[in-house]
Amino acid sequence: MPFAGWTSLGQPMPQSVLSHATALNADGRVEAFALAALPEQQAGAIWHIWQGAGGEGWSAWAAMVPPLDQPLMPLGAISAGLQKDGLLKMFTPAGSQVQTQQSNGWSNKWQYFFVSAPGSSTTPVQSATPVQVNYYVVVHESDNNMNVFGIPTMYQSPLARTYQTNRYFNNYHGWALVESLASQNPLNLIAEDFDATRNQDDRMEAFVRMSDDCLWHTWQTKLFSQFTDYYKFDNPSADVVLVGRPAAAQNADGRIEVCIRGSDGQLWHIWQTAINNGWSTWSALGGTPIGDPVMGLTAGGQLVVLAQFPDGALWQVSQIGQNGTQGWGSWTSNAAESITHVTLQKTLSGNLLAFISAAGALWFQEITA
Q1: Range of 295's domain?
Q2: Which of 21, 203, 207, 222 could bridge across to 80 with cysteines, CB 3.0–4.6 Å?
Q3: Residue, of 106 and 190, whose pLDDT is higher
Q4: Distance from C-alpha of 250 to C-alpha of 228, rounded to nearest angstrom
């Protein structure tokens, strides 16, 4: 059975789910968002589905009102996160939308993205028209203040970031480019893929695979501050370059770990050797992943990585004990097939759920080490 162990949430017929995002409502219920389209369409619509009271059962799929000037949404990744004020905010390639009250109701008013780009003076120059952002990463500080990272399509810049300036209300700094690479960028590197997470002390850190097929990183020098220049990790070897999107997550003790595919077909990982500081060299996790990895912390405190393999199935590998001190286990199959997108969602009780867009539908399963 190709989806043994998975629970199907179906699809918003007749459309197929291409990508998705999940987040927790203020009351702890999971809400899922899907970008769905007909096979022949180059754009789609946003739908959502949510858990019932107490986390029991799921609603039917419901369509979200599209922007007035864009009835069909550009295809791309979507994301969502819970603001400090307890309202969910959902991000799409064309704009964002926020709940009208905690755990219920949506504004149907779309907010568009304007990016402040570095100008010739100390005053940033803001884009005159909204920009499209095709991929987002939402990172929460320990007090649930929300940071959002993305790559704007109109700028050949490594990264942009927005964050809540009023930590208790729906106020944002506005998108600003994390542009420090420009001063040391003779190769005119362009960000290809990225992930971001927080250090144990809440400082944000971003990991970007650039157009030189190397992994670079930048971090805040202190809480709520600017980011450092970008610094490059050496590749695993002279014969191995890096491929696809990295995945970053915290170990149980707060140290960051990052994994990414190599050109040799294996998965590689690198980790902080001390809390908030210092990095190991690359080590192979093996496997034969053809899809980008996702990584999260199980209820037992062990990191787990999931990725699609050549047989079409979703495979996983986990730490044997917390913090990787006992190494990692062997890859095992989680079934599934025809996968187009994989995400992980932590529940209020600490359980880790995997969601997949596969065979036109949305599916989920609890993940254990």
Answers
A1: 7-367
A2: 21
A3: 106
A4: 20
CB atoms within 10 A of CB 152: 22
Is residue 161 within a helix (H) or strand (E), and if so which, with residue range?
strand 160-166
Nearest-angstrom CA–CA distance, 43 and 286: 36
- Cβ neighbours, 10 Å, residue 119: 10
Q: For residue 160, what are the contacts with CB-CB under 8 A and spacing of at least 6?
A: 115, 133, 149, 150, 151, 152, 175, 176, 177, 178
Closest by CA to 357, choosing from 153, 72, 97, 76, is: 76
CB environment 342-358: b (16+ within 10 A), e (fewer): bbbbbbeeeebbbbbbb
Separation of alpha carbons 12 and 34, rounded Å: 9
Torsions phi, psi for 54 (to 5 deg): 70, 10
d(CA 334, CA 309): 11
Single-letter residue type at 323: N
Residue 1 belongs to a domain: no
Could you give the dihedral angle defined by the CA atoms of residues 337, 343, 348 and 349, in that order, rounded to the nearest 10 degrees? 50
| CATH number of the domain where residue 162 is located | 2.120.10.70
Structure confidence at residue 232 as a pLDDT band (50, 70, 90): very high
* 334-358 pLDDT per residue, tens: 888 889 999 999 999 999 999 999 9
Residue 208 has pLDDT above 70, yes or no: yes
Task: Give dist(CA 94, CA 290) in Å, integer.
Answer: 28
DSSP designation for 289:
-
Dihedral pair phi/psi, residue 358, rounded to 5°: -155, 140
Specify if 2 maps to a domain: no
Q: Which amino acid, 87?
A: L
CA distance 34 to 44: 10
Whether the predicted model's global pTM rises above the 0.85 cut:
yes
Q: How many domains does the chain have?
A: 1
CB neighbourhood size of 120 (10 A): 6
In a domain, 34, yes or no: yes
Average pLDDT, the chain: 86
Residue 102 belongs to some domain of the structure: yes
